[in-house]
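Translate sequence into structure tokens.
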Amino acid sequence: MFRRTHPEPETPTTIDKVGGKGRPTPTRKEAEAAARERAKVPRTRKEQMAAQRAARGDSSRRMREAMKTGDDRYLPSRDRGPVRRFIRDFVDSRFSFIELMVPLLVLSMVLGSIGGDDMMRLGNTVLFTTLLVIVVDIVMLRFRLRRELARRFPGESTKGAVLYAAMRSLQMKFLRLPKAQVKIGEKLPENYR
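Result follows.
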């Protein structure tokens, strides 16, 4: 007897869409519940203030974390962008006399308060020498930074770059925010884009 064989029906193969969302589409019930939850307006002033405080706290937490890690997405607008990142790295990679300023200022105060005209003159000399060295250091920073910015970022606006670098260099390294991402003497990458 002849048996008739039917070919097996082909099962459709599922092809994952490249760049898909990676999760199933929510049902209408789930989508409507989520929309209602988002649209829920605080009824009282107390609820409104609590929601604002929670949003501010979350924003502040993200910004503090970005200040530690250097994540550009959550940094304040004055610290964002490749030019500002380069300036921070440029300042952080060089030795600055500001690092010695606090001990030298303490020394000048001690010498000035010990007494005697000679000690006071010595304290004043240390103080004014420290200030002079810092001014010379900032002027040298300005010339070197402008040359590097012109070489690395031609045609880009560098408005306020020197002031940003000077203000960063006037801070002690462990107090700088965003935190330093490079060590002193470390070679900087060529591309910051």
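Note: The chain has a mean pLDDT of 85.
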